Amino acid sequence: MSGLEFFRLQTREEVLARYQRFGPVGVEEVGLGEGILRVLAESVAAPEAVPGFARASMDGYAVKAEDTFGASPGLPQYLQIIGEVAMGEAPRGRIAAGRAMRLPTGGMLPAGADALVMVEYCSEHPDQTLEVRKPVAPGENLLRPGEDVASGEVLLTAGRRLRPQDIGLLAALGVTRLTVHRRPQVAILSTGDEIVPPEATPGPGQVRDSNAYLAAAQVTAMGGIPVLKGIIPDKYSPLREALAAASEEADLILISGGSSVGARDLSLSAIRGLSGSEVLVHGVAIRPGKPTILASLQGTPLLGLPGHPASAAIVMQVLGRPLLERLMGLRKEVCPRGDAIQARLSRNLAGASGREDYVRVRLRQEEDVVWADPILGPSALLSPLVKSDGLVVVPLGVEGLTRGEAVMVELFVY
Amino acid sequence: MSGLEFFRLQTREEVLARYQRFGPVGVEEVGLGEGILRVLAESVAAPEAVPGFARASMDGYAVKAEDTFGASPGLPQYLQIIGEVAMGEAPRGRIAAGRAMRLPTGGMLPAGADALVMVEYCSEHPDQTLEVRKPVAPGENLLRPGEDVASGEVLLTAGRRLRPQDIGLLAALGVTRLTVHRRPQVAILSTGDEIVPPEATPGPGQVRDSNAYLAAAQVTAMGGIPVLKGIIPDKYSPLREALAAASEEADLILISGGSSVGARDLSLSAIRGLSGSEVLVHGVAIRPGKPTILASLQGTPLLGLPGHPASAAIVMQVLGRPLLERLMGLRKEVCPRGDAIQARLSRNLAGASGREDYVRVRLRQEEDVVWADPILGPSALLSPLVKSDGLVVVPLGVEGLTRGEAVMVELFVY
Lengths: 414, 414
Prior knowledge:
The structure is a homodimer. The first copy, chain A, is an alpha/beta fold. The first copy, chain A, is built from eight helices and 28 strands.
């Protein structure tokens, strides 16, 4: 009975919902220099305030603001200069009424002062008298302690992929060891009796293993660590053994497929032959990508990719990426940050009855308009993919899209 | 005379034009598995056609197309099955008139056949007779040799950053060694007497070195290799020596600056003190980022970053990235691939008189509209940068931008 269920095509949403059973991989500690693009496993609360002391945000003079009130070019105020604050040192002395100290940008505000007059509005006279031609308000031209980050404030939460500015903030906070999720290890098993390694010269009927290398590069670009397991003979026992070994080592298994029905059936048998395995999805209502398999091998997710290169690449983008990101512990931002951009469709597109249709497009700018040019071609070809920048979806139940229509283009990860 | 020229602010375009004197770094050879995101130094012409032979793009039967003409469910054609093509092997036998062979997806077309009938339109009878209920045209359901890539065709040109699908194509072509540009080595010198390493506890008036770590992370994200050279004392000789050493090792030098005027003047003196050095730019008409320096140290480019963290980060994005990409040999695609996206401005923005104004914005989606929310705050703060997704430019000579206006948001590299 339940065997038959697998042949009902599942929608993309149904497939994504099944990912909930797979949790993120474990954590490791890395130094700040290795933190870029890693995913935080724990939120970081600021251990101290930044800045830690009141600092000048301009070059000028530390003063009591009230000493400058009423100053103007016609009627300057005069203060006595009692010294200079050196960068990186505590000020020597305090500011009493009528006094001022030279204060460079970033320098520490001396006690007693509550504002900085910019150097542009001042002149020094030979007798250490400062002429001030503009009033300042208390706090002006200063950074106050904690203005950037308050002590205890949480700016970086668990699940965030660290960006350069986040690394800068962590450095400022003195947080030099980071708890991040491991990069998921992704085992890639090539199947298909017609497949030979890229460095081999194919004999009659043979082709080179492009899909595994394509998938590996996608995994790297998405933040995982691909492990190419080589070409497994299209026989039950070797495939079953390779799957069993991979399920113990890897966080995710990809079967980079033989394109024939026979190869796919063999994959299914081998998966089912492992104890604790469960086929969750066999067939997805997307085009290309229908013969995709999702399984759990004792808790390790397995994605069986279609055999045609373009189908495999699109399935990795549309279904593999969210799975990998889940394993990475990544919490996606709500707002598009260049994952998708709007464009105008340059020709009519018919949809695929009963399936979401993913059409490869190339972007082309013409004055202010970004056009999405569909790049058509069978899924067995690589070159249309090489010429494309992303995907336009004709949704389920929509007959087609019209030339000139505004569409969202889901960009390839690179 | 020429010393005074440096104080004229140069526009972004003028700065970018000066990059032409700096050529791309040298090349190295890497394997296919290391090729992802590397920049091709030489165009790749296909050494052979892909596919190399006529292949089935569906599961079905190899036939002579003319044997199927006129076939219909009511009046099928009958052919004799003479065998099966095994995956990865040359077909055994040839197709004469009235004959057919089973042919799985990806299998090699036997001699004599010129089309494939899909399995869905056929039935096999016990006596090895094939019932065909639909005609096929010559070439139907086949990939012809060279349909993906013709021999000699150039799909990947010098200057291209290799994407996953490019790696897949190279694997299919058997191109397993790639000539790519080296990743540029970027020496980062921290200056400023107030600066201590991130792992130190700052004393009074001291701050941790966030800018160098931020710049290093940006360099990594942009494809370079950062080399942190540590904190150089704000004295002429040590700085000059550090610059001399860096100019011999690195492809690009960044001075991550002390924020005071004194520190900047010292950088300029140290640069000018090196033989064969030339200060090309001292002051750029952008806000923030005015005190940026561009110099050539015997042909090695040097970018002197402003001292405020946000200024430094924005200068790296706006001026550092194009310089680094030039050194990487990257030829940018004409069309935006998510580098910038359109959004609607959520409040009025005043421009900076006489300068391009770069305003940090956060993206926020509200139904179908993507809003750009300006994140204001002094350049001395990191947190507004952490909260932002990219930059909106108020161009030179424009008084300001209006709430509701459509703007392009230049996205941060991550």
